[in-house]
Amino acid sequence: MVGLNKIMVIGNVGTDPEMRYTPNGNPVTSFRLASSRSYNTQDGQRRQETEWFTIVAWNALAEQCNQYLTKGRRAYVEGRLHSHSFQGQDGQTRFRNEIIAERVLFLDRPITGESGEGREGAAGGDDASTPDDLPF
User: Tens digits of per-residue pLDDT, 24-75?
Assistant: First the structure.
C-alpha cells in the first residue's frame, strides 16, 4: 500500500540559511521557518501561536535557498516530514523533526536600495521584471 508524507508551510524565515557540503560534494542548506496563527480564547482574548520548523534543502534547491533567502523573508515550503534521533552532548537521546524541502517559493522581494524601492511585494508585481528575470 502506498503512503503519503507531505507538509506545506508558509511563514517567515527565522535564521539566515546555512549551506554546507556532504563529503560527496552535494550542497545542503538548512534554516528555520516560523508559522503563526491567531485565534480567540473562550473569554474573547486574541492570542497568537507560533510553530517553528527546521527546513532542509538539497542540491540545486539548497543553492537557491542559500542565495535568495534571508532572515525575515516570507516563504512557502512543501516537502516531507523526516524524524530522527541523535545522542546529545549530555548523553541523552534527542529527537528532531525536519521538513525535507521539495519545493520552496519566495513570497516576497528582498529590500533593495536605500530609498526603499523594491520593498516587500507579491511575486509578479508591477515592476519592470519579466518572468525570465526571476531566479525560480
Answer: 999 999 999 999 999 999 999 999 999 999 999 999 999 999 999 999 999 9
Q: Which residues contact 29 (CB under 8 A, 6 or more apart)?
A: 17, 18, 19, 20, 56, 57, 61, 62, 63, 65, 66
* Interatomic CA distance for residues 77 and 101, integer angstroms: 6
Asked whether residue 122 is domain-assigned, the answer is: no
Asked if 71 and 15 count as a contact pair (C-beta separation under 8 A), the reply is yes
Rounded to whole angstroms, the Cα distance separating 132 from 110 reads: 18
Question: What residues are paired with 82 via a beta bridge?
Answer: 98
Which regions of the chain does DSSP assign to beta strands (E)? Answer: 7-13, 18-21, 27-40, 46-58, 74-87, 93-106
Predicted pLDDT of residue 63: 97
The answer to whether the CB of 48 falls within 8 A of the CB of 38 is yes
- Where in the sequence is the domain holding 61, given as residue range(s)? 7-38+46-111
Residue 74: inside a domain? yes
CATH number of the CATH domain containing 87:
2.40.50.140
